[in-house]
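Hey, can you fold this?
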Amino acid sequence: MTRKTVINGVSTQSNFGEKEPLPTNEDAQAEAPEEKVELQKKVTLLQGISIIIGTIIGAGIFISPKGILKNSGSVGMSLVVWVACGILSLFGALCYAELGTCIKKSGGHYTYILEAFGPQMAFVRLWVDMIAIRPSGLAVIALAFGRYILEPIFMPCGVPITAVKLATAIGITTVMYLNSMSVKWTTRLQVFLTFSKLLAISIIIVPGLYQLFKGETKNFENAFEFNTVDLTGLPLAFYSGMYAYAGWFYLNFVTEEVENPERTVPLAICISMVIVTICYTLTNVAYYTVMSAEELLASDAVAVTFAEKLMGNFSFAVPVFVALSCFGSMNGCLFAISRMFYVASREGQLPEVFSMIHIRRHTPLPAVIILYPVTLLILFLGDIYSLLNFMSFMRWLFIGVAVVGLIYLRYTRPEMPRPFKVPIFIPVVFSLTCFFMVFLSLYSDPVNTGIGFAISLTGIPAYYIFIHFHRKPKWFQKLSEFVNRSLQIILEVVPVEH
């Protein structure tokens, strides 16, 4: 089977699965860039840390840490849960540090499941990500951005929903544009936004701890009242906490673009998780210094209530910081996830155009914009929060499967170089935690979880229709070639040079 590629009006043919070279005629050579067309290693240690921290810290810590307090039953137990979830997330991050240094490919969960368990399970993960998890997750973060960026303008009134959705669409479009234009500027922006988040958190932590040292400790009296602790609610508290820490895996999606990944990936992961755990715990301590447990549970936006109590007129700045935090999460998430689609295309599980690079900007342009139409469609037409409920358990299921893959590879491929190796109890504990959270979803919300599971199962027939069966109808082959060729010309992208 052959495929056609058109670049600058020149048609070439090659066997399917091979990467064809750039045209060799004089005109094409004159227009070809001097640099090799590929994704370059531009992610430094600082940028790696900013990708992880900037993606983990979204709107949650500013808006709603009350889920953990509500289900843990006391101030002291809620702080214990925050620390414990940080440690458990560090376990998962260390597992991914080992996977990222022994499998030096981008793509994160998708790549590790592909290496350990084969293409069918990897495709189901890709399918669920593409049709539901990623677009709905991106839309939720973007909605929080839209709401909080407009809040200072409309204060003290509520923000109209139409205005929120328009601001959200502008935010998504801006992030897509930045990621399409330059890897360097995307990572630089991520560093800036990460420092903005840490500044926002320090604006909460410093005054809060100052009040604590002044003796404002009444809200910590009887912090561990066990008569208020509901043991059946603790698993739900851990579920909320693990969700708040989710994002430690995003650097593994861009491993091929990281400078010296054997050193940078484990170091960036460990530094980031320590910083995030300390920030989350101290932020909650600051909240409790100023607000009682009852006041925190009654608040819709904890950081805003905190600022109003302690800072007066300065509280208008908090929504701006929350909006910047959400923008950073969108930027980091899209930067990482686009590489999964890029790798999936390279593995033959998505149309080949998604593994091509812009000829001048050296960005995976098709892989960046693949989510754009679906995200906007969900934003304006779909029930985003239902989709998230359907799919949140699938995220933990596949992360657990990827970590089980680490254990499996230890025994099936012991000769594989492992520059960074974790004790075996760490992946065992973390994978059991993931599967426990999946079981918890089945128990606490069987309807939504069942619908999500059914949506996920559609990936199996999709795999056999689009990937497994090689003898596709001629009209389908011609249409596929036409779409690939047209997109390649419109987007000015070419296959990666080897």
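Oh, and this one too while you're at it.
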Amino acid sequence: MEEYPKQPENLDDPPNSRLFVVTSRSITEDELRESFSVFGDIHGIWVVKDKQTKESKGICYVKFAKSSQACLAMEEMHGKVLMDGTKPIKVFIAQSRSSTRHRDVEDEELTRIFVMIPKTFSEEDLKDTFKEYGDIEYCVIIKNKATGESKGLGYVRYYKPSQAAVAIENCDKTYRAILAEPRTKTTAPEDYSAGAPRGDYVGGGGGGGDMNQYAFPMADPGNYPVNMDYRSGDRLGDRSGDFTRCLMISTRAALTQEQIFSLFDIIPGMEYCELQRDSYGLSKGHALIRYSNLGSAVYAKEKLNGFEYPPGNRLAVNFVDDGEDRSSPVGRMAMQFVATQMMSSAWNGHSSSQAMKPSYPAVAPMPRVQTDVNLPPLKKLAPPDSKAKERLFVVFSPAPLPPDVLEDVFCRFGSLIEVHLVPGRKVGYMKYADKQCADDALAALHGRVVNGVKMKVMLADPPREESHKRPRTY
């Protein structure tokens, strides 16, 4: 049984000012206070203890006076070692006690603020106003779809939670800055009737199509509809604003800009490609593509949304607002033409869907395994009942490769018995019937990237002089 110390009632005032910390059981409250007090005024520290033994469970809560102090402490202390011989600690913003969720607050939920602004503000004005509090990733002003006029509302997204918290605490109160609600998979109404933040998951174009499984930082769904179901009975011509020349690509694999460029450049007319990066220059898993004409963008979205590149990594491709005025007669005609083409393709089935194809080459099939490693030819698996002579332990970043791809890669060194992925974790085991084959695989694949996934390969069972433990069976 775990004993949670009694805590005061105002733990969620201000919001997101309490940390959830996973530490070593040997770390004391005084040591925690000494380590965390440099970030601000601590209102309390509570160490979770076993109800029977009264010993620490290695879990504690740290309450700060301000949200910005808690966020800064999280950013600086996560992964740090407090004492020699102990494991690195894990630090998260704790959920409010009224929350029904079973996970702690994610950084993405803490970096985007919702503000009320003068309707005369441009995005540049918005950025200039809030840039003094930290590095801004993007600013979005919410506009009326029909008139294009500002609604006096906007979003500002920072790179770090502490920057967003400082902005909320220190900006002029007339902006009524608060944290924007996390994106959800529900469809939001087109217009804001009040200045309250809404979920802004990009989705809901009005059809019953598949929900986008990758969330990416965009604004009000009323202004950025992207998911469309061409099989539904909607009059696509009436929703022609869904089509733009700009696409947002989301990927879980660590693709480079060159890889994304090469894939989307297959379709003629691409004039812009930019991989979004964080403040450290690392990919954030999103890229913006712009085509010179509407037809190319529509074709790219239809053909590449859901396409696996590399194999095992499904791309999410959606339309985003390109900022163009499509209310002119020419704009309406262009949208109506594309909508009619798409609706005709949907109603008449596969045969008529070829109407758009003559202008564009087909997307070339990608190799099953993409890596810079000079892999040997494929070899047969060892019999399933073979005795394991060596096991390799593999850590994947950012996500595990599919088992069939792993089998394809690791069997090439011979005597592979089976591949085992640990559910819910980014690790796996490769079982070999011959030690030399396992050693060859380790030497060739450690630190290498396969299909956009970096692998750390090591021996699962380091040799020991003597062991009385029962051997593992997987």
